[in-house]
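Researcher: Go.
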Amino acid sequence: MSTSASQQADLDPASFRAIADLAYRESGLTLVQEKSSMIQSRLRHRLRDLGLADFAAYCSLVQSDAGQGERRNLISALTTNVSHFFRESHHFDVLRAELDRHLPKLRAGGQLRIWSAGCSNGQEALSAAMTLLDHVPDVARLDLRILATDIDPEVVQFARKATYPERLVRGISPDMLKKYFDQTTEAGHEPSYIAKPVLTDVIRVNELNLLSPWPMRKRFDIIFCRNVVIYFDQRTQEKLWPSFLNALAPDGVLLLGHSERIAEPERYGFTCTGPTTYRPCHALKSTARPEKQKQSEG
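Model: Structure:
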């Protein structure tokens, strides 16, 4: 098949439905018909790379056992990865306050665990690390770890490199940029900045689908899950809230994006303590257990 043929391939209604259903099953993404032109544009390069003539052939592949690897590429193409450093700055005020609260425990040999769920290109995890180090410079010598995860393997690789072109470091103050990044220039590319080991040594970046089983065994003191669940429908969100509650330490905090909310948070064992800031609500959680057990016994 010629390149021009793949570039002219149109996303027919049946293929749109097949792709939308698969994206929902695999990742919880909700795709609406109005986005079909965007989906068509983002996936045409996959047809070209695979030498497929049309979207019907592409759907046949991704729905087959042989298409498991391509399903990851499909989700990667459809996922929006927009982020920047120190996005929604009020959450970093919360982070500083949480560090103050946990510092005595940390200095006594305890742990502080943070999860950046849906980390995109890694700016959120690095912003958290800079915030903590700037607030308490010796915190990196304590038992601090930040886990950054994303469903998109391409952005996971980007985040692991922790190298950002000049246009992506906006939001970092000149002092912080000098303190925590080294400037580097790759041949033929714009000046870039690579995070220093003092940041990257406390961050681990892994691929993770939020709809798959979570392998983490230890609970987190702080979870960032910002501008992620906005792409999920209400049913998928309702499945995730109990999982986040179980992943939080008893006195932990969950931070959502500016346009995200937990509807009826008490229903899921949370209480809202600030703008898009949620903590476990243990009294309500414990009273809900007998009712849940009674329902399961019935």
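Model: DSSP finds twelve helices and ten strands in the chain.
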